Amino acid sequence: MTAPNAGLATPEPRFGGTPAHLRLLALAPALAADVMTRLLERLPAYHALPPEQLRGETIRQIERGIRAFVEVLRTGQLPGEDELARIRESSARRADEGVPLESVVGAYHLGAQLCAARLLAEAGPADLADLATAQDRLLGWLRVVSCAVAAGYVQERQAALGDEHVSRQALLSRLLEGGDPRTAADRAGVRLPARYLVLSLAIGPHPDETRPGVNHTVAARRKLRRLRAELERHCAPLTALTTDGGAALLPDDTAAPAEALDRDGLTALVDRLTRACGAPLVAAAVAAPPAEVAAAVRLAAEIRQVATAAGRGPGLHLLSDVLLEYQLSRPGPARDALAALLAPLADRPELLDTLRAFLTHDLDRRRTATHLLVHPNTVDYRLRRTAALTGLHPTRGPDLLTLRAALAAHDAPPGNPG
């Protein structure tokens, strides 16, 4: 099939009385070599190709492209489907080789620029109309060729990314199941790191998700897409995330034991993720070698859940931050007995909230009052009522530890958290 072209009835452009296509046809071999030289000068991505490929396939493609443009110049007809299919196939090979799309498109534009320069060098004042015709055909050729290049490149990348996604998801599934992930890593073409930093994330709502008149599903997906993009900028993670949260495995080759974590670095990462998605994040982090990722994911989820139940709020939480709460959240008769100490407060949520805030703010009644938006005297009253109902006073040394433990047990989820 030949693409329609308005220039069919326009005579072939001539410069100095000579058909323009004949001038370019005679120069095609030398012009192809010139284009190759300029490609290597201006588009560094082509330096990564093997020399034999540059001297063979690449130079032939360039010369064939010049001859295809010569035909457009001669006939006024844009390239047919056969030529466009060849261009799509060539572009797909460049995509498979890792040449950036802008370099592939730039190569055609560079060739067109050099062809135009040769034509202009032959044109005189009397050739203005022919020059306009040549320019129109050049722009038409560039338009359909650029579309073919982009289509071939994108189709190849989509296929490659689809295969890569399936392989990476298989590796993620194997890591989450436990056991030896090496076979799955080989299939995915992924080198297993010394350890993974496991992030368990709870993603709060973006303001757009609650705004009237906004498609809340779209807003949630945009939030998740921004968070994933920020993670990709940090490393090449494996993720199992929804709009509400999930797990992210960040490869880490740090020569450090699993329990050693860079709190400052992880805090900075969580801050960046929070800014990127525009929503509050509660995050817990654990490190583990690949064979122990499954247990680390469960532990990170438990830490995050315990931190949330303890009222720790958004941000990064490590096991060292919630050691007492975590231990007391384990099921058993001791936990049940501790939680029962606060049973008299079951119908008084304001007393529980005040006790929790008072312990969180280091027994500072004024900071507690500010947090609760009440008067300090109200805090004092509620603490006295708590003491009267439970027999445990939050400001008395022996009772303080018991209350902390009882509150941790009370806030623990039923059964096994996570």
From TrEMBL:
Residues 29-166 form the RsbT co-antagonist protein RsbRD N-terminal domain. It holds the Pfam family HTH_30. It comes from the Bacteria. Residues 351-409 form the PucR C-terminal helix-turn-helix domain. Coiled coil: none annotated. This is Putative transcriptional regulator.
